[in-house]
Amino acid sequence: MTFVKKAERERPVVPAVLSYSAPEGTAPQIAELLEMMSYRRSAGSEAEADFINRYIMGFGPEEMADNLVVRVPKVDGTHSKTLFSCHTDTVHRDSGRQAPIYDPDMGVIYKEDGAPLGADDSTGVWILISMLRHGIPGTYVFHYGEERGGIGSSALAKTHPELLQQFDRAIAFDRRGTEDVITHQGWERCASNEFAKALAAALNEQNATFSYEPCDTGIFTDTANYTRLIPECTNLSVGYEGEHTGGEMQDVAHAIALLDAALDLDWEALPTARDPKEVEDAWRFYGPAWGGDYTRYAGYVTGARRFIDNDGQLSCFAEDDEDLDEIDEIRAGAFTENEVVLAVQDFFQALENADLRTAASFLRYEEVEAFYLHEEELYWWALNAIETGEFGSDNEWELIETVRGC
Fold first, then answer.
1. Confidence band for 3, pLDDT divided at 50, 70 and 90
2. Where in 204-268 does DSSP place strands (E)?
3. For the chain, which domains are there?
4. How confident is residue 348, by pLDDT bands cut at 50, 70 and 90?
5. Comparing C-alpha atoms, which of 170, 217, 160, 190 is closest to residue 276?
6. Distance CA 335, CA 345 (A)
């Protein structure tokens, strides 16, 4: 079976490395993780298709709304109530190969070319395929287009709600750090405290070095799109840091330890307490964020994304004539909708990471200069984020001047 992405979604292949193999003598688990991270997999790219063919298609997945789904029944033949989640794309803007480096003394994987590593979410994919090899019961969803706003998960929720409603829990392996069991994503609660505490305790019991605990400062992964259908939707820290930046790295020992715990944990024994029909504190962020508060920041990200629909096009959430006029201006520009969408998404992803220097660099893109909303929307959101101290960066004036320079 061969997986081929839709031609219109493919991006030009600009390989930094034509091929890659882990150094001789590298432990098999680490070698596989290294080789998975050698793919620069922008959503819908040739490299992503190659990656999927190499690592996922052998499990015989079913394609559902551009996502790949593999089901493993329980020993008695009944279906598990657990959905496991990861995504196959990376934040890279191009498609090809790269050369990750493993430092056995520090126990980390990193790169030196200034581009993201792609541990987000290569590590999650690696954990899921490893669980599949061990026959852990569950439904495994390899999502398309998470880095482009959760395209695949949003489509799955819309087209197959009856499938998702069969589950009690959705567990994503797509969180930075080593300690978080996410209870809130973006604008609302996604998992109950009872569930998060039980999962954290179960993980910590598996490994004495673990210190997992409930965390209410999640931003977004695909399970956020299932919160109205599945009671408990979370995201687990898998050990990467600095995602979406040139400083991204992966704690290898933690990834291996988490996999070992996932193989032994009784997922079906976790409690279910949240009612997905009850929306708690919608359109609010929770807890401190880089020394500030998420509450106002929620509007910055959602405000931009209201112009981007599940196919990566503009206009899905246009609510009035003014919105439509702004979108028409974008379409009348010299750049394609996709180019504008990618640039704007990159800008907001940088803001999500509190990386103002990177955000400023994205605002220099000609695509954003062609985006008529930049003065009225991007500038306003960025300036308010800075003035309220939510990001606490020393680079605020650089960002302000860059935006003004657009």
1. low
2. 213-215, 232-241, 249-251
3. 7-269 (3.40.630.10), 288-405 (no CATH)
4. low
5. 190
6. 15
By residue count, the chain amounts to 406
Residue 186 near residue 224 (C-beta atoms within 8 A): yes
82-87/138-143 β-pairing: parallel
pLDDT average, residue stretch 151-167: 93
Tell whether the torsion through CA atoms of 115, 28, 241 and 129 is positive or negative. Answer: positive
CA distance 149 to 336: 18
The angle subtended at Cα 281 by Cα 278 and Cα 282, nearest 5°, is: 85
Distance CA 406, CA 402 (A): 7
For residue 362, what are the CA distances in angstroms to 66, 119, 350? 28, 22, 9
Instruction: Take residue 37 and report the two structure tokens written for it.
Output: 């991270």
Radius of gyration of the chain (CA): 20
Residue environment code for 20-49, b if the CB has 16+ CB neighbours within 10 A, otherwise e: bebeeebeeebbbbbbbbbbbbbbbbbbbb
Which pTM was predicted? 0.71
> What single-letter DSSP state applies at residue 378?
I
d(CA 121, CA 387): 33
Q: Is 25 left (phi over 0), alpha (psi -120 to 50) or beta?
A: left
d(CA 343, CA 331): 15
Distances (CA, A) of 388 to 113, 261, 292, 293, 296: 34, 41, 8, 9, 9
Output the six-digit token pair for 363. 């605002």
Local confidence band at 219 (pLDDT 50, 70, 90 cut-offs): confident
Q: State the SS3 of 327-373.
A: HHHHHCCCCCHHHHHHHHHHHHHHHHCCCHHHHHHHCCCHHHHCCCC
Say if residue 349's pLDDT is above 70.
Answer: no
The per-residue pLDDT for 351 is 54
* Closest to 44 (Cα-Cα) out of 311, 346, 314, 306: 311
Residue 362 above 80 pLDDT? no
